[in-house]
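Lab notebook, bench 4. The sequencing result for the construct came back, and we need a structural model before the next group meeting so we can plan mutations. Quick request posted to the team channel:

Model the 3D structure of this chain.
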Amino acid sequence: MTSEANNEPSPARPLRLAGIDLGTLTCRLLVADLPSGGNSLKELRSDRRILRLGEGVDQTKRLSHTAIDRVIRCLRDWRTVIDRYHVDGSSAVATSAVRDAANRAEFLERVKLETGFEVEVITGGEEARRTLLGIRSGLPVGVTDILALDIGGGSTEFILDRPAQKPIVRSSDIGVVRLCERLLHHDPPTEDEVRHAREWVALETQAAVADMGNYHPTTFVGTAGTITSLAAMAQKLPAYEPARIHNYGLELSTVQELERTLLSRKKADRIGLPGLEKDREEVIVAGAIILVTVMETLRWKDCLVSDLGLREGVLLHLAAGMS
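Done. Here's the predicted structure in token form:
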């Protein structure tokens, strides 16, 4: 006899998706399930590696062969991981470093030939749009109007988003790798180097928000590795804990104190600071300078930290295209 339950339609199987973000500093992988009709991803596997794909690009306008080799080795590993999960779809995107590189076609061809991934090089505006998808999927209840900040290795995105209004997006060529390579040449940086860095970041910030009108009746939200690392350092976390990072309130006074600590130490002396991710010892100084300067310039006293961003947005964008 057939049971009554067997006559009921079974719920749609979730989409299983994989996304890769090839950033200027960090490369990230996410494999996740997306329930039918939902926008909240269930993580199955994630990885991130600081590979500095954009090392030297600000000066040379070319991706180095050693950086390309590092990324290809990583992508071979991730190809094996993704294949094990039998995903319904996958997407790989590249951002600022590859956008700026004169030899990006060579890089994309090597990646396709040696790993099978077809990488989409997205504009700063599209990077911000997908980052916003990721941020929106994990905001606390009641947070609607936001000004989001995404500090990357080669660029920083400012995103003003209010429901029922088209987002205003500005992408600026300030990033932690670019700032280190262009201005922060000493270890630790000199007072003059820090001053010039602040001046540059302040000018870029003012330009980014110049046509945004009154952006203050919003929640200031920060995403990506600099901000999540500073949130981990603020809590002195011995290991990265997404649940304690996501939606953490990071105060300007705390970031200023962390910046002072970082600037008072050489790179080698920052190793082992609680919450600081390995291989981020150099660029975290630039990241702290950027975040402090942006918050001071915009007169913001606190930042809501999002552990979700471009990587999650890549999957949500992919899912929308498959529906």
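The first strand starts at residue 15 and ends at 22.
Will bring this to the meeting.
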